[in-house]
Protein backbone atom coordinates (compact mmCIF):
# COMPACT_ATOMS: atom_id res chain seq x y z
CA UNK A 1 0.00 0.00 0.00
CA UNK A 2 1.42 3.38 -0.99
CA UNK A 3 1.67 6.00 1.76
CA UNK A 4 0.00 9.32 0.90
CA UNK A 5 1.32 12.78 1.69
CA UNK A 6 -1.46 13.17 4.27
CA UNK A 7 -0.31 10.05 6.14
CA UNK A 8 3.26 11.33 6.49
CA UNK A 9 2.63 14.70 8.18
CA UNK A 10 0.02 17.19 9.29
CA UNK A 11 -1.07 19.90 6.85
CA UNK A 12 0.47 23.35 7.20
CA UNK A 13 -2.73 24.99 5.96
CA UNK A 14 -6.36 23.91 5.51
CA UNK A 15 -8.95 26.00 3.71
CA UNK A 16 -12.14 25.87 1.67
CA UNK A 17 -12.41 27.84 -1.59
CA UNK A 18 -15.25 30.35 -1.88
CA UNK A 19 -17.61 31.00 -4.79
CA UNK A 20 -15.49 34.02 -5.83
CA UNK A 21 -12.50 31.69 -6.37
CA UNK A 22 -14.20 29.76 -9.17
CA UNK A 23 -13.40 30.15 -12.88
CA UNK A 24 -15.68 29.83 -15.92
CA UNK A 25 -15.12 26.05 -16.01
CA UNK A 26 -16.48 25.61 -12.49
CA UNK A 27 -13.04 24.88 -11.06
CA UNK A 28 -10.93 26.94 -8.68
CA UNK A 29 -8.51 29.45 -10.26
CA UNK A 30 -4.93 28.20 -10.47
CA UNK A 31 -3.76 31.52 -9.03
CA UNK A 32 -5.82 30.94 -5.89
CA UNK A 33 -4.19 27.54 -5.40
CA UNK A 34 -0.76 29.05 -6.01
CA UNK A 35 -1.36 31.70 -3.34
CA UNK A 36 -2.37 29.04 -0.79
CA UNK A 37 0.81 27.12 -1.58
CA UNK A 38 2.91 30.28 -1.20
CA UNK A 39 1.33 31.00 2.20
CA UNK A 40 2.04 27.46 3.45
CA UNK A 41 5.59 27.47 2.10
CA UNK A 42 6.17 30.88 3.67
CA UNK A 43 5.12 29.54 7.07
CA UNK A 44 7.70 26.73 6.89
CA UNK A 45 10.41 29.03 5.48
CA UNK A 46 9.77 31.73 8.13
CA UNK A 47 10.12 29.17 10.92
CA UNK A 48 13.36 27.74 9.49
CA UNK A 49 14.84 31.16 8.70
CA UNK A 50 13.89 32.65 12.05
CA UNK A 51 12.41 35.73 10.39
CA UNK A 52 11.35 37.36 7.15
CA UNK A 53 11.54 35.48 3.86
CA UNK A 54 10.61 36.15 0.24
CA UNK A 55 9.52 33.77 -2.51
CA UNK A 56 12.08 33.95 -5.31
CA UNK A 57 11.21 30.98 -7.53
CA UNK A 58 8.61 28.33 -8.25
CA UNK A 59 9.84 25.22 -10.04
CA UNK A 60 8.19 22.10 -11.34
CA UNK A 61 4.62 23.25 -10.72
CA UNK A 62 2.14 20.64 -11.93
CA UNK A 63 -1.66 20.67 -11.83
CA UNK A 64 -2.85 17.06 -11.52
CA UNK A 65 -6.60 17.48 -10.96
CA UNK A 66 -9.01 20.42 -10.59
CA UNK A 67 -10.17 21.77 -7.24
CA UNK A 68 -13.94 21.94 -6.92
CA UNK A 69 -15.98 24.47 -4.97
CA UNK A 70 -16.89 22.20 -2.05
CA UNK A 71 -13.44 20.62 -1.61
CA UNK A 72 -11.51 20.96 1.64
CA UNK A 73 -7.96 21.85 0.64
CA UNK A 74 -4.98 20.65 2.69
CA UNK A 75 -1.53 22.05 1.90
CA UNK A 76 1.49 20.02 2.99
CA UNK A 77 5.03 21.40 2.92
CA UNK A 78 8.51 20.35 3.96
CA UNK A 79 12.06 21.57 3.45
CA UNK A 80 13.68 19.70 0.60
CA UNK A 81 16.96 21.67 0.41
CA UNK A 82 18.84 24.26 2.44
CA UNK A 83 21.34 26.66 0.94
CA UNK A 84 23.32 29.46 2.58
CA UNK A 85 20.47 32.00 2.28
CA UNK A 86 17.68 29.97 0.68
CA UNK A 87 15.28 27.13 1.33
CA UNK A 88 13.61 24.90 -1.26
CA UNK A 89 10.18 23.91 0.06
CA UNK A 90 8.29 21.00 -1.52
CA UNK A 91 4.55 21.67 -1.42
CA UNK A 92 1.67 19.27 -2.11
CA UNK A 93 -2.04 20.12 -2.23
CA UNK A 94 -4.70 17.49 -1.56
CA UNK A 95 -8.46 17.98 -1.89
CA UNK A 96 -10.83 16.11 0.42
CA UNK A 97 -13.88 15.53 -1.71
CA UNK A 98 -17.38 14.18 -1.28
CA UNK A 99 -19.19 12.33 1.48
CA UNK A 100 -16.66 9.50 1.42
CA UNK A 101 -13.91 12.06 2.04
CA UNK A 102 -11.88 10.90 -0.93
CA UNK A 103 -8.33 12.29 -0.97
CA UNK A 104 -7.45 13.72 -4.40
CA UNK A 105 -3.90 15.01 -5.08
CA UNK A 106 -4.41 18.22 -7.05
CA UNK A 107 -1.03 19.91 -7.45
CA UNK A 108 2.54 20.07 -6.24
CA UNK A 109 5.57 22.27 -6.70
CA UNK A 110 8.95 23.33 -5.43
CA UNK A 111 9.10 26.87 -4.04
CA UNK A 112 12.37 28.67 -3.18
CA UNK A 113 12.43 31.24 -0.38
CA UNK A 114 15.30 33.54 0.61
CA UNK A 115 15.88 34.74 4.18
CA UNK A 116 15.80 38.56 4.43
CA UNK A 117 17.53 40.99 6.77
CA UNK A 118 16.06 44.28 8.05
CA UNK A 119 17.00 45.96 4.75
CA UNK A 120 15.19 43.29 2.72
CA UNK A 121 18.50 41.88 1.48
CA UNK A 122 19.43 38.17 1.54
CA UNK A 123 20.93 36.98 4.82
CA UNK A 124 22.45 33.71 5.99
CA UNK A 125 20.11 31.12 7.43
CA UNK A 126 20.62 30.14 11.07
CA UNK A 127 22.17 26.70 11.63
CA UNK A 128 19.55 24.15 10.96
UniProtKB/TrEMBL annotation:
Molecular function GO labels: long-chain fatty acyl-CoA hydrolase activity
Q: Pfam families of this UniProt entry?
A: 4HBT
Q: Which GO terms describe its biological process?
A: acyl-CoA metabolic process; fatty acid catabolic process
Q: Which residues form the HotDog ACOT-type domain?
A: 7-119
Organism of this sequence: Sphingobium algorifonticola
Per the record, the similarity remark reads: Belongs to the acyl coenzyme A hydrolase family.
Under which name does UniProt file this protein?
Acyl-CoA thioesterase
Alphabetically list the UniProt keywords: Hydrolase
Q: Which InterPro entries match?
A: Cytosol_ACT, HOTDOG_ACOT, HotDog_dom_sf, Thioestr_dom
Q: Which GO terms describe its cellular component?
A: cytosol
Amino acid sequence: MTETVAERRDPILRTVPRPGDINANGHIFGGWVLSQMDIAGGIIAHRAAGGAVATVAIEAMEFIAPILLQDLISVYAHIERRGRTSLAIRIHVVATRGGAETQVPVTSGLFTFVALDENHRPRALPPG
